[in-house]
Amino acid sequence: MFGVKIYVSGDHIFPHESAVLVMNHRTRVDWNFLWAAMYQACMPHVACHKLKFVLKDPIRHIPGAGWVMQMNGFLYITRRWEEDQGRLSRTLDYLIALDSRTQLLIFPEGTDLTKNSKEKSDKYALQHDLPRYTYTLHPKTTGFAYLVQHLQRASYLDAVYDLTIAYPDFIPQSEIDLVRGRLPDEVHFHIKRIPTAEIPTHESTLRKWLENKWSDKEGILKQFYEQKTFSSAEIWPMAKMLPLRAAFGFWSILTGMMVLLLIISPIFQLWALIHAAFFVGLSIFNTGFSQLEMGWYSRWKSYPFQAKRS
Asked: Which residues form the Phospholipid/glycerol acyltransferase domain (predicted)?
């Protein structure tokens, strides 16, 4: 789409698995291209994946987009572990209770690669006698280890997918680049599936395991930027564009209709105002729609007639 070619290599993603996905975070707009990569990675079951992101908490406050992500059950973290642990635990328990086999994507680096974030990563490396990275940041391992262990204890983890994203030409750094039409010609993804039997179960070994994966990823990316391709990786055939264009057309028309109604229809304006007030209220007095949904579910399950059924 828009002249950007998405190349995917490595293992396919099985959309019916309960999995944790980890990926390097090269720029703020990686996720825009990830959706297209998931379209190819899950072939032929393109409509079946249930990808949910683990994101910074402020993103849920973004009008429109942040509210939609709340309703889709994205996970938000505050970087305060006492609070984040509770949020993650409630969300994972909820997904397990619903038997919702979801793919949870976490960016272990915690932020995208910039001059400032690299300086912090280099400082961390110096303090802990670690090598300085050029193409990645040293990963934060707490959240990843908790996600994996929680799912392992429930026997609900099928695999971990290690995704590597790389831009062989232009690297867009922000949404402003996209708005201005400054897009890369190509974006490459390489996927490695690690089955649950090969994943450590203890927290310390899980942390070290992820650190080793990131060390390998640094080497893979170094080689990529020298060769402009992932070495010895067969690139999958490009996905058919017709379904993507149809989806883009549908959502463009729908968005245009919503904007038009917002301008000309007092009833729609009132409807939009009520919903905006609802989500603003959630932002102030609650931790998001998904957390509210989980609370409703817990209370519903605690009713006497539900207890008798179970």
From this structure: 19-137
pLDDT tens column, 68-83: 888 888 888 888 888 8
Bridge pairing between strands 19-23 and 159-166? parallel
CA–CA distance, 183 with 167 (Å, rounded to integer): 10
User: For 192-242, what is each residue's pLDDT tens digit?
Assistant: 999 999 999 999 999 999 999 999 999 999 999 999 888 767 777 766 667
Residue 105 and residue 52 in contact, taking contact as beta carbons nearer than 8 Å: yes
- Pick from 244, 274, 271: which is nearest to 40 by CA? 244
The total number of residues written for the chain in this structure: 310
pTM for the model = 0.87
- Residue 282, Cβ neighbours under 10 Å: how many? 19
Instruction: State how far the Cα of 194 lies from the Cα of 272, in Å rounded to an integer.
Output: 44
